[in-house]
Amino acid sequence: MDYALVSFASLPGLYEEDIIDSLRVYGVLSLTPKNLYSHPHSALAAFAANGFGLCSNYTDVTACEEEESEMPEHWVYTLEYTNTSLDARLSRMSVASLEYEAYDTEHTLPSFDLGYAAFESRPDKDRYWAEVTVFLSRLPRTFQHEGPITILSLLGDGTVSPKFSDIEFQKDVSISDECGPRVRRVAPSSGY
Length: 192
What we know:
The chain contains 6 helices and 7 strands, in the order E-H-E-H-H-E-E-E-H-H-E-H-E. By secondary structure, the protein is an alpha/beta fold. It has a 5-stranded mixed beta sheet with strand order 5-4-3-6-7, with helices on both faces. Strands 1-2 form a two-stranded parallel ribbon. The longest helix is centred in the C-terminal third of the chain and has 18 residues, at about 125-140.
């Protein structure tokens, strides 16, 4: 029997039960490690995949717990840009097995009108990019967070678009000048 741990976007109406059901359809069992209570949202998975919030010796539980208590907190702004949606999530993270802010829509902002497929159907391409820029600035400006955003995490194949990379929204929000590491998952270009 095969096992899988699946990360998924934090979208309204998409629940862990849906992920588990889809695994069952393919005969795959859900894998949830001891220190992870459920399948992680993609923001937390990217945080861990880029080396944040992980113990240096995960086999020693006591040492790992001590190390976790010393891990710095980060405000992480995750942007997922795909064919069908543009999603923003603002989270406080420290340990890869725990996301401090609850998975709720208060810190998540999805747009199903701004996925990159919408770009092709828009007669005014400049207006599309202006709407994307406003959208990207909205969540950090409206949600009160303590301190600057220290990690900008870009997910989804749309983030490799040169036009998306050129957006200057960071000047409008409280992203740290150093911005810590710029986390980015590289994916094939969609050719737009």
